[in-house]
Amino acid sequence: MMEEKNGFVREVAEKKYEYGFTTNVETEVIDKGLSEDVVRLISKKKGEPDWLLDFRLKAFRHWLTMEEPTWGHLKMPKIDYQEISYYAAPTPSKPPRGEASGHSPSGETEGGLDPKLVETFDKLGIPLEERLALSGTAVDAVMDSVSVKTTFREKLKEKGIIFCSISEAVKEHPDLVREYLGSVVPYKDNFFAALNSAVFSDGSFVYIPKGIRCPMELSTYFRINARGTGQFERTLIVCDDDAYVSYLEGCTAPMRDENQLHAAIVEIVVKENAEVKYSTVQNWYPGDKDGKGGVLNLVTKRGHLRGRNSRLSWTQVETGSAITWKYPSCVLSGEGSQAEFYSVALTNNFQQADTGTKMIHIGKNTKSTIISKGISAGKSQNAYRGLVKVASTAENARNYSSCDSLLLGSQCGAHTFPYMDVHNDTAVVEHEATTSKISEDQLFYCNQRGINTEEAVSLIVNGYAKEVINKLPMEFAVEAQKLLGVSLEGSVG
Amino acid sequence: MLQINNLHATINGKEILKGINLTVKDGEVHAIMGLNGAGKSTLSNVIVGHPAYEVTQGEIIFNGKDLLKMSPEERAHEGIFLSFQQPVEIPGVSMVNFMRAALNAKRQYLGLEPLNAGDFLKLMREKRKIVELDSRLTSRSVNEGFSGGEKKRNEIFQMAMLEPTFSILDETDSGLDVDALRIVAEGFNKLRTPQTSAIVITHYQRLLDYLMPDIIHVLIGGMIVKTGGPELAQEIENRGFDWIKEEVGL
Hints:
Mean pLDDT of chain A: 84
CATH superfamily of chain B: P-loop containing nucleotide triphosphate hydrolases
Helix content of chain B: 40-55%
Largest sheet of chain B: 6 strands, mixed
Radius of gyration of chain B: 18 Å
Shape of chain A: globular
Strand content of chain B: 25-35%
Largest interface: A-B, 21 and 32 residues
CATH topology of chain B: Rossmann fold
Number of helices of chain A: 11
Mean pLDDT of chain B: 93
Low-confidence stretches of chain A: 1-15, 94-111
CATH architecture of chain B: 3-Layer(aba) Sandwich
Oligomer: heterodimer
Distance between the termini of chain A: 10 Å
Strand order of the largest sheet of chain B: 6-9-10-3-11-12
Number of domains of chain B: 1
Number of helices of chain B: 10
């Protein structure tokens, strides 16, 4: 019986990551290593203006003076930054007739997209043809360092909405990019932010003009494909006065024995009465059951609630990556602005997560809510780390934080590091935390009713995470639910 | 229906059941009485396949099949149901989702299509009435915040939903007031058919007055030491167990 169970566990651990395939597409990869020359080369390949090259070089020079942070509750493998290639672009299988037309989404030939790329994203459940799209969702598909295709651009343009890759935005809307890039996450912010600012390749740019409610979900799908490369994407979202947008990102990568570095930056600017919902379903390759390989997901995400009564919510379902190190944060400057952070972080096998948020209250009557649900299984380590800071200017600021941990088995760890820094007496800051364990009795109760252990765990975990999952757009909520079940298969027994 | 032959079982290496022999025929209800620690709950746990117990000798044959070879969920699919003495709470899992998962797992095992949401909810409504279970409770998480009586009613409700052929009621009467006891017992009686059987574990005559079991067994020291008709329960109610102990020389 026991042996049978172990066999099952092994089987599931080996097959469960269904996005682990590699696309055999020709890819232009620059030589490994990082130097000023490499930064210049990336900028040149992308045909960037001088101000952006300047930005990159400043960031790079600053990065050289910094050291990798070690405060995370993480055992980080040594990253050799000279062993990584900083630019990889899938090249079209049919070369375009005539001259290459400078930048257009890479992978796109005159005759349309490389079928291999279309096939890849199809397999991931992300159709790149608009007629096949998930209802009401526009997609920016990014493979390795470049944006492959952005759907529904024309339709969105009618409303004045800009949704394109950030490389294109640099060309077509340089003033907007220049105004906001680095305005929320300065390149000096932290080690990985400096690295990203120096070598960022592609990502999405979104601008919602005043008074416009974006009629569809915008989403970016990130895919790492090439071997020995890092992905350094950069996303910038600007939501002008009285505007609204809901944005989702998804991510997967092939199964590889080596660790792959993913160091992204997401910046969000929310103006007066505007609202942004940002949802993430992160399913980077987590490494195998022995902890070999997997993506190092080291990300800086921050939103600036600049305007009065602006609103921003981060919702994240994190099931992938060998290491997740990120704290989607909110700076609440605008009077009466409101921020939310909803997170489910699931770790299994040897995965490690140190994730949470920062809520920085600056404006009066600002309000933030933090709901964090950690789920640890196998031999994984899962930490919530959060900062609630109330500046002296933030009269009547309010924060409510609730951090729950659920343990499966006895070899995993759950940790909570809440920090509070309150400089205004009128502020109300509440924090609640619980730790629970799925008990043998609960599982047996389910078994006796005919529900097998895998399904019982999935039911319990989904029930536990419901509060967060419910915040996701419908289609993605269903995906996320399945993902939680799959990611935990074989974790009990 | 159920035949237990020379069953020995241990928990943590300690032998609790020391050679149980018991045959339950279609349509019969058997009561098992005995002092605390006699092995009554162990017997029910072994029948449903609780992993903490190890069967060291003997067999359980259920409708011609070797029950001990089956996983707990297979036993459930085959028609065995345990009304737990202490039903566990499962926060976050709604009764609706829980019952749907359970029922559809059984249907899949039997080669049937899963019930669609509409039919399922209709079935829930019907079965709820059997134990007068409030819809407020079925929309909550499994057993969470239920009173003792509500938990027991919820057990019989689940029994009604899953339509087992063989049920075990493990001290379903404990912690129930008179009204709740009546509702639970009447609910159980409504579910009885000539094709269903049950074992009722209890200390008290009260429940048996409602259920009117066909056969009464007395379990002492891990063995069935005395078996009789309904009058045996009455005698135990009046005289306790000591006279039986003396009779069998314990």
